């Protein structure tokens, strides 16, 4: 029998007739645990969103206060034209502004500069020289410095130590002038040392006068003697006495550092290449300075015969340095070949026979062994030159092509790519484009070679003016390979129209002709796309 005191499932509404039943003790304990839980959850949510709001506010505030650096917006091609002016075979590509793009330095002779600055403003007679820095992005003038005419030579880029406040040295009139490449300011100016006119390059040597700034060595020569003059890198004042050598007609020179840290001035004449220790030069100049001596090399020298024979051969014409770490190998061009001299042992590594080298040697990376390869232009007769790329390690031929040797063709150039090879650029005319020697005079073309496609050349004919200076270079890391041209009158230093042009290397690709010098399966579009996809890098 069911009890009438408790409601059952059959009688669900009976509880309404009486008072509500009180909760049990266990239910009270459970309810006490849940009291306040919704309130704590709301507080946590509020604190989270408040923190998020504060963080976002700080991020957005600093994004406006400290904006990201703006990358320089460059023009793919630009040119500057100067009427009734003269220019010279000098182009330097340097950082001369605060952006990441390299800039261009050159010399102009005129009555006024690029920004209408007159010679009189610098207290000079007219016409005068203007040493000018232009922005690599758009060709606008950064600065210009009027200097006294005439121009002899200029050189930039060897001074890398922070203690030195100048970057370019200009020989002009009777002066040597050191210039800051960022402002064009003259740091020091001194009369040229008495005696013979010095020649390029000037050599940067270790500090010899104790002022903690590297110094300068000038070399001058004629048919009677060779003179060596040391200058303070800080002030330009001559250090010690002029050193006179019984060594005539020095055609070229450079500074060589041995593996042990000894320095030698390498002098080249028509009978060979010889080295003279810097410590001997300092001693002859009456300077008291301690310099390292190379015991091995000094076995071949003495006080009465200080010159060390490095390579003796009749008819040496050019001497160049192949850079490789602290110790540089040396390339000697003779009347019958190119010889690589080991920078440590000063002994030949390899030799390549030639008929007559027609331009200054240049370098690049044809293969991926990380050793610079050598570009040689060899005269093979009948107005024809053979462009040969030699393996820097062995001297073997990696690539070659025959071109007509058109007058006023600059030396070859190259730009290093992110794929550890270079794009090569050279000048001439493909024989198939000319039927006789008369028709190609002045019909100069430029050619680009990508080692991935050794049987392909891109041919371009967009430069017909007389070229005074040319340089292929990387203006911005990774993205902006370009070539710089300085064109003007056929006689260097003569008045006429001078044009400075910068052109992005890839700008020539769409209008170029694809020349096949062998069997290639890829289409013209594939070849051009390979050039367009290139990324460039510094070595």
TrEMBL record:
Stretches that traverse the bilayer: 46-66
Pfam families in the cross-refs: Beta-prop_FAM234A_B
Keywords: Membrane, Transmembrane, Transmembrane helix
InterPro entries: Beta-prop_FAM234A_B, FAM234, Quinoprotein_ADH-like_sf
Membrane topology: Single-pass membrane protein
Regions of compositional bias (Basic and acidic residues) in chain numbering: 1-18
Compartment(s) where it occurs, according to its Swiss-Prot or TrEMBL record: Membrane
Domain of life where this protein originates: Eukaryota
Domain FAM234A/B beta-propeller as annotated: residue spans: 78-537
Annotated region (Disordered), positions in chain: 1-36
Cellular-component GO terms for this entry: membrane
Coiled-coil ranges (or none): none
Main location group: membrane
Family: Belongs to the FAM234 family.
Protein name: Family with sequence similarity 234 member A
Organism: Oryzias melastigma
Organism classification: Eukaryota, Metazoa, Chordata, Craniata, Vertebrata
């Amino acid at each position: 029998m069911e009890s009438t005191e408790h409601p059952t499932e059959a009688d669900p509404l009976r509880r309404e007739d009486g008072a509500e039943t009180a909760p049990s003790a266990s239910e009270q304990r459970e309810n006490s645990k849940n009291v306040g839980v919704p309130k704590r959850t709301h507080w946590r949510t509020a604190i989270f969103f408040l923190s998020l709001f504060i963080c976002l506010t700080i991020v957005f505030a600093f994004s406006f206060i400290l904006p990201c650096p703006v990358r320089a917006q460059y023009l793919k091609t630009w040119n500057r034209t100067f009427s009734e002016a003269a220019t010279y075979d000098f182009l330097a590509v340097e950082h001369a502004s605060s952006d990441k793009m390299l800039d261009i330095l050159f010399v102009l002779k005129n009555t006024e500069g690029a920004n209408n600055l007159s010679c009189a403003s610098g207290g000079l007679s007219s016409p005068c020289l203007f040493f000018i820095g232009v922005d690599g992005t758009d060709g606008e003038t950064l600065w210009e410095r009027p200097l006294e005419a005439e121009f002899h030579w200029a050189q930039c880029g060897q001074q890398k130590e922070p203690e030195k406040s100048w970057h370019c040295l200009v020989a002009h009139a009777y002066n040597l002038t050191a210039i800051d490449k960022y402002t064009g300011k003259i740091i020091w100016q001194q009369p040229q040392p008495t005696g013979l006119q010095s020649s390029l390059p000037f050599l940067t040597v270790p500090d010899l006068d104790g002022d903690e700034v590297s110094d300068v060595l000038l070399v001058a020569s004629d048919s009677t003697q060779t003179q060596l003059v040391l200058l303070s890198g800080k002030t330009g004042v001559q250090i010690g006495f002029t050193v006179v050598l019984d060594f005539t007609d020095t055609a070229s020179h450079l500074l060589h550092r041995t593996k042990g840290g000894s320095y030698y001035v390498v002098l080249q004449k028509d009978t060979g290449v010889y080295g003279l220790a810097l410590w001997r030069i300092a001693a002859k100049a009456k300077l008291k300075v301690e310099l390292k001596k190379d015991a091995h090399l000094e076995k071949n020298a003495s006080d009465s015969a200080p010159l060390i024979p490095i390579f003796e051969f009749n008819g040496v014409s050019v001497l160049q340095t192949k850079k490789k770490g602290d110790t540089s190998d040396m390339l000697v061009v003779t009347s019958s070949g190119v010889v690589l001299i080991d920078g440590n042992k000063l002994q030949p590594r390899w030799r390549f026979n030639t008929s007559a080298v027609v331009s200054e040697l240049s370098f690049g990376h044809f293969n991926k062994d990380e050793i610079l390869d050598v570009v040689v232009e060899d005269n093979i007769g009948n107005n024809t030159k053979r462009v040969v790329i030699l393996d820097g390690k062995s001297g073997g031929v990696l690539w070659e092509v025959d071109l007509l040797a058109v007058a006023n063709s600059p030396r070859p150039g190259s730009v290093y790519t992110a794929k550890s090879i270079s794009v090569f650029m050279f000048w001439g005319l493909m024989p198939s484009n000319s039927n006789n020697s008369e028709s190609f005079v002045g019909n100069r073309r430029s050619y680009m070679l990508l080692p991935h496609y050794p049987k392909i050349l891109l041919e371009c004919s967009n430069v017909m003016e007389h070229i005074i200076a040319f340089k292929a270079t990387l203006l911005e890391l990774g993205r902006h390979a370009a070539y710089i041209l300085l064109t003007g009158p056929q006689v260097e230093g003569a008045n006429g129209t001078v044009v400075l042009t910068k052109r992005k290397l890839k700008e020539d690709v769409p209008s170029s002709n694809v020349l096949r010098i062998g069997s290639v399966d890829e289409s013209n579009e594939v070849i051009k796309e390979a050039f367009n996809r290139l990324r460039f890098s510094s070595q």
